[in-house]
Amino acid sequence: MKNASLVILILTITLSLSPMAFAQEAKTDPGKQEFEMNCGVCHGMDAKGNGFLGASLKVVPPDLTVLAKNNGGVFPADRISSVIDGRAQIATHGTRDMPIWGTRYAVNAAQHFFDAPYDQEAYIRAHILILVDYLNRVQQK
């Protein structure tokens, strides 16, 4: 009987915390997290080119919030995607000072799914699309 009461107590606490956990989870923005974790140190947490490592680079990172503005009001999603995955060479990056995230994501996927089948290309594209979507959402109007 004592064990049953303990199980009921644990179940009650778990169920009462679930809505709070769901609400907290709903507030997270995977694109923002991806950007802050991988791009923010150079491009700034606000994507305006003011990251703390930016000052130590030869070329100051650009303000990524004006990409659409500088492209006739159209966000250049394909161009941004190709810069992130390494298909497009950026002259100011020289010898690829900026990491080629497509390769990085492939390594992460291999470590995460080492014992399960997965589509590596889909994994990489999903991470890049999450990042591109976030950059599209932070564009100045």
What does this structure look like?
55% of the residues lie in helices and 0% in strands. Helix 2 crosses helix 6 (120-137) and helix 5 crosses helix 6. The protein contains 6 helices and no strands. 14% of the residues are buried. The protein is globular, with a radius of gyration of 20 Å. With 141 residues, the protein is mostly helical. The protein has one domain. The model has no long low-confidence stretch (mean pLDDT 77).
Mind describing the biggest β-sheet?
none
Number of strands: 0
Helix count?
Answer: 6
Indicate the multimeric state.
single chain
Write down the domain tally: 1
Task: Indicate the proportion of strand residues.
Answer: under 5%
Q: Globular, elongated, flat, extended or rod-shaped: what is the shape?
A: globular
Q: What structural category do the secondary elements indicate?
A: mainly alpha
Helical residue percent band: 40-55%
Order of helices and strands: HHHHHH
Low-confidence segments, given as residue ranges, are none
Distance between the termini: 63 Å
Radius of gyration (CA) equals 20 Å
Q: What do the pLDDT scores average to?
A: 77
Describe this structure in a few short sentences.
The chain has helices at residues 2-26, 30-38, 40-43, 77-85, 101-112, 120-137. The chain has 141 residues and is an all-alpha fold.
